[in-house]
Amino acid sequence: MKNKTFWIFALLTLSIISIAYSYTRFTNKEEKGEKAEKTAAECHEVPSNIESEFKPTVENKFKPDTKAPKGMVWIPGGEFSMGTNVEDESLCSIKGVTKDAAPIHRVYVDGYYMDETEVTNEEFEKFVKATGYVTVAEQKPTKEEFPMASEEDLVTGSVVFTPTPKAVNLNNFLQWWRYEPGADWRHPDGPQSTIKGKEKYPVVHVVYEDAEAYAKWAGKRLPTEAEWEFAARGGKTGNLYAWGNDLKPQGKFQANIYQGHFPIKDGDTGEDGFKGIAPTKQYAPNAYGLYDIAGNVWEWVHDWYSVDYYKSLAESGKVTKNPQGPDAYYDPNDPAEIKRVHRGGSFLCTDQYCTRYMVGTRGKGEIRSAANHVGFRCVKSK
Ligand SMILES: [Ca+2]
Ligand SMILES: [Cu+2]
Fold first, then answer.
1. Domain residue extents for the chain
2. Name one Pfam family in it (predicted).
3. Which of 9, 15, 88 is closest to 45 using CA atoms?
4. How far apart are the C-alpha atoms of 348 and 255, rounded to whole Å?
5. Rounded Cα distance, 208 and 374, in Å
6. Which ligand is nearest to the CA of 97?
7. What is the whole-number distance in angstroms between the Cα of residue 91 and the centre of ligand 2?
């Protein structure tokens, strides 16, 4: 394999990690020495003005009298304040990075069932066995899609997190992501790896259409971004996290994120119990019974990603009912890429780099790009 050309290939494929782009832009401006020296505790203080912008969540009263489908919980829906406070919810000392999740705006969603965990390898395998489905990462990329890549580089594969040998400047995410030939959902770390013993781990290396195909087969669908956030907030109002406002209540982590020096080899201390990805259900569920709604793996949601969607909803001055996302995707950082929203953050989220395990914040991914920190969960209408 020619590593050099792979970088070009990776650049095209890697847009999933472009959650990092906005960060990069800010660091370039703020590279003045004093940045990011704050401790986690300082970064995550509850801002004094945050509550004022959130109005109380009003849950629907209706509850189905039949049992929820297996592995799903009922989310009542209702009216809530969605999004984040841009000034205060940021990548630590770097303000404004989460501005795509501002302003806070009022939304109503109908009730629905939601998977209590991210879709696991075991569940995904059932789908593949039943349908013969082949994921995008398992399909040979074509010249049409990657005109710049040479023929020998057009091989199946996916993007895998790879710790750096030593400390690096965090302004270039290609330092810790590699395009791994032969990586796919069955081989999460490359062709030699397997999912044996990882039946209960969330499936990864799935792109939007893979997630959608699974959902359809299961008689479900992907949540809208509003449904996702309503569910993640667990009926609470304006919290920073899915479980409250304290990152570590009683000193205990509530989600699988990243502690230690990012992204260096052996840097992940696993203080939260896990280095790297974790099986599902290792932390307490949120108030609606949802596990790992923060951290572990990002979750594809239905909506197109548009940087100013929340702004447009807020400007309408109305309570938006069952929003389905914008009509078109738009990310000024890379306008040519077709993106949908990711939510929840992953096992790689750290206050040194990306704090999007915070419940009101957003991620995004190119719709045909897979990686080992992105999965999904489904919903089902009543
Ligand atoms: Ca961890
Ligand atoms: Cu993150």
1. 16-382
2. FGE-sulfatase
3. 88
4. 11
5. 10
6. 2
7. 10
Quote the longest CA-to-CA distance of the chain: 59
pLDDT of residue 96: 55
Position with higher pLDDT, 155 vs 50: 155
Q: For residue 98, which ligand has an atom nearest its CA?
A: 2
What is the number of residues in the chain? 382
Ligand 1 centroid to Cα of residue 58, in Å, is: 33
Q: Could you give the CA distance from residue 144 to residue 1 in angstroms, rounded to a whole number? A: 21
Ligand 1 centroid to 304 CA: how many Å?
A: 29
- pLDDT the model gives residue 93: 46
**Scanning the structure block, which residue is given the tokens 């260096």?**
264
Distance 119 CA to ligand 2 centre (A): 20
Residue pLDDT, tens place only, 148-162: 888 888 999 999 999
Contact assessment for residue 229 and residue 319, using Cβ atoms and an 8 Å cutoff: no
Ligand 2 centre to CA of 374 (Å) is 11
Q: What are phi and psi of 237, to 5 degrees?
A: -115, 125
DSSP 113: E
pLDDT tens-digit map of 235-264: 999 999 999 999 999 999 999 999 999 999
* C-alpha dihedral sign at 82, 50, 19, 342: negative
Question: Facing residues of 79 across strands?
Answer: 58, 108
Contact present, 294 and 345 (Cβ < 8 Å) = yes
**What are the backbone dihedrals phi and psi of residue 120, each rounded to the nearest 5 degrees, phi first?**
-95, 165
| CA 150 / ligand 2 centre spacing (Å) | 32
**Sorting pLDDT into bands at 50, 70 and 90, what band is 15?**
very low
Q: What is the pLDDT of residues 204-224, one digit of tens each?
A: 999 999 999 999 999 999 999
What is the H or E stretch that residue 42 is in?
Answer: helix 40-43
Please tell me the distance between residue 358's alpha carbon and the centre of ligand 2 in angstroms.
9
CATH superfamily membership of 16-382: paralog of FGE (formylglycine-generating enzyme) (3.90.1580.10)
